[in-house]
Design goal:
Layout (H helix, E strand, L loop, with lengths): L1 H17 L5 H15 L4 H34 L4 H10 L4 H15 L5 H18 L4 H15 L6 H10 L3 H5 L3 H28 L25 H19 L4 H16 L3 H34 L2 H12 L8 H7 L1 H7 L2 H18 L4 H14 L8 H10 L3 H25 L6
Helix pairs in contact: 1-2, 1-14, 2-13, 3-8, 3-12, 3-13, 4-5, 5-6, 5-7, 5-10, 6-7, 6-19, 7-10, 7-18, 7-20, 8-13, 8-17, 8-18, 10-20, 11-12, 14-17, 15-18, 16-18, 17-18, 18-20
Length: 434
């Protein structure tokens, strides 16, 4: 009965989320509790399952909240703006340079892990330049989206945070072996940008359009809240961020604690007055808390799945149905189809409903849980910008002035191809088994 109830619960949650009949917060918080009680567990036992689940996801949820708030402060103070404007100037109005710089700027802009903020920064800044150079906005949204997808594997990014919570591993430990994968991803995207840029330059020359000219009109407009480049506070922000990143690489201090302390220092450094600090926190609270709420309620689902024995029962039942020996490569199969699966499943359903089942089947065959998480991360991350169930995608196509159908048709094969290459590379270097 436990196994059957587990399947009914998981399929029900996935269906209700995909059909938009329930929000993930409601689905993860209510349905598992009802299922646990129907299975015969007492409220006290169910509460114990929930406590264990929340204990497992709390560090990752904390990391997400404080990292998003921290990078929100840095973005408002314009920490990355001088670098972005420098890169725009270096394009010199040449399509090849413009395409390459698009990748670099999108990668830098997405260091905060917030897709909507990345699209708002990059697409309006580059769209007039693309229009002037007769370059398709589909190229712009393709390069920005795929670059953001590769960078989205950072430990404070939503997908990695979800995967870490489900796998029960530290987000930074999950991410560090993916650094070479991200590096290769950027190299591949620079190659793709070069292809698009050279093609555009040839078309422009054939049509008699010349590039070049003053890039001043295309620079990011000054932010009212940004610090001047010569300000000591600006460079203090840079040093503080570098210290946090150094801690990330060395593991000298828990990453969630680093961002907690870092946010406190950043607020004191940039907004000495308490009321200004409160306003700045409120400005970015929506981005930080929305995902954290989903993650914490997912702790209820994960706790009940494990504590009630549903996850183990479902995995055992599915193993019996799978061909002999396939359990050990299931995570690779799912990872291979990560891009198309990410277009069908919302990130919450993918990581909190599908991943626990894949995790338990693969780990029963001896696959490390972190390898399962990384394999499922690579494809879904790479193709997040073409997923119809990701809200920020509609912001991106709206800013670029393209239709979703055109965007999917143009970008899908590039996204899936790059995702497969990155998965194969991760397998070769041992990040996902092998």
């Amino acid at each position: 009965m436990i196994t059957t109830l587990g399947f009914v619960m998981m399929l029900g949650i996935i269906a209700l989320i995909l059909l938009k009949r329930l929000t993930p917060v409601v689905g993860f918080a209510v349905i598992p509790v009802v299922a646990s009680l129907l299975a015969g567990f007492t409220p006290a036992e169910t509460g114990g399952f929930i406590k264990d689940g929340l204990t497992a996801v709390a560090p990752t949820a904390t990391l997400f909240i404080f990292a998003i708030l921290y990078f929100g402060v840095m973005r408002e103070r314009g920490m990355f703006d001088p670098l972005v404007n420098f890169l725009i100037k270096r394009t010199r109005g040449e399509p090849l340079r413009v395409a390459i710089v698009t990748v670099l700027v999108a990668a830098i802009a997405h260091l905060d892990g917030v897709g909507a903020a990345t699209f708002l920064l990059t697409i309006p800044a580059f769209l007039p330049l693309y229009q002037r150079l007769k370059m398709s906005p589909l190229i712009l949204i393709c390069l920005v989206g795929l670059s953001a997808g590769v960078i989205n594997m950072v430990p404070w990014g939503g997908p990695t945070a979800r995967a870490a919570a489900t796998a029960g591993v530290d987000a930074s430990e999950l991410w560090l072996p993916l650094l070479p994968v991200q590096a290769l991803g950027i190299v591949l995207l620079l190659a793709l940008a070069s292809y698009f840029g050279i093609k555009a330059q040839r078309q422009n020359r054939a049509n008699g359009h010349a590039g070049g000219g003053d890039m001043t009109a295309y620079l990011l407009p000054p932010r009212e809240t940004a610090l001047p480049l010569g300000s000591w506070r600006y460079w203090a922000n840079v040093v503080l961020t570098l210290i946090i990143l150094l801690i990330l690489f060395t593991g000298a201090f828990p990453l969630y604690a680093s961002f907690m302390v870092g946010l406190g220092i950043a607020l004191l450094l940039n907004y000495p007055r308490p009321e200004a600090q409160g306003k700045e926190l409120a400005r970015h609270a929506n981005d930080a808390l929305q995902m954290a709420l989903v993650m914490l309620t997912a702790g209820i689902l994960l706790g009940i799945l494990a504590g009630a024995g549903m996850s183990e029962g479902m995995a055992t039942a599915l193993i019996d149905l799978l061909p002999a020996g396939s359990a050990g490569v299931l995570h690779l199969i799912v990872g291979f189809f990560g891009v198309p699966l990410g277009m069908l499943f919302s990130p919450d359903a993918y990581y909190f409903a599908l991943m626990p089942i894949v995790r338990d089947i693969a780990t029963s065959a001896g696959v490390p849980v972190d390898a399962v998480a990384r394999a499922m991360l690579i494809g879904e991350n790479t193709g997040f910008s073409i997923s119809p169930v990701v809200p920020s995608v509609y912001l991106a196509i709206g800013l670029a002035g393209v239709e979703l159908r055109e965007h999917l048709k143009f970008t899908f094969l590039w996204a899936w191809g790059i995702g497969i290459i990155l998965l194969a590379f991760a397998w070769l270097i041992g990040a996902i088994g092998g």
